Amino acid sequence: MSYRVVGDTSRRVIDVAIGILVGLRGCSDQAAFDELVRVVHETGIGIGRLATGLVAVASGSSTAEHAEAFTVWGDLIDRARLVSLAN
Q1: Could you write out the three-class secondary structure of 19-51?
Q2: Which positions fall inside the ANTAR domain (predicted)?
Q3: Buried b / exposed e across 41-73, counting CB within 10 Å, b at 16+?
Q4: How far apart are CA 39 and CA 45, in angstroms?
Q5: Strand, coil or helix: what is 55?
Q6: For residue range 14-52, what is the model confidence (pLDDT) as tens digits?
Q7: pTM, full prediction
Q8: Cβ atoms of residues 53 and 13 within 8 Å
Q9: What is the dihedral of CA 6, 12, 13, 19, to 10 degrees?
């Protein structure tokens, strides 16, 4: 994986966001990172902010500030929660 971010906290949040996508999609770390980058290019939102939004949405603590992440990944996360509740 190759990405450049400012600050250790951003790196950790990006790693957590990648882990969330790996868990939800069953994909590789690289595919998850590529998805984050694709959404960054589509939205113009920085990777740190987008990753923070994904983590917030996945943890159920999202706010209006995380609306873009919810728009992109909210349905995926909701489906995973439903599957989890059904089991």
Answers
A1: HHHHHHHCCCHHHHHHHHHHHHHHHCCCHHHHH
A2: 1-55
A3: eeeebebbbbbbbbbbbbeeebeeebebbbebb
A4: 8
A5: helix
A6: 999 999 999 999 999 999 999 999 999 999 999 999 999
A7: 0.83
A8: no
A9: 140
Q: Which amino acid is at 7?
A: G
End-to-end distance of the chain based on CA atoms, in angstroms? 34
Question: Which residues are CB-contacts of 37 (< 8 A; sequence separation ≥ 6)?
Answer: 3, 47
Length of the chain: 87
Amino acid at 37: V
Residue spans per domain, the chain? 4-86
* The one-letter amino acid at 5: V
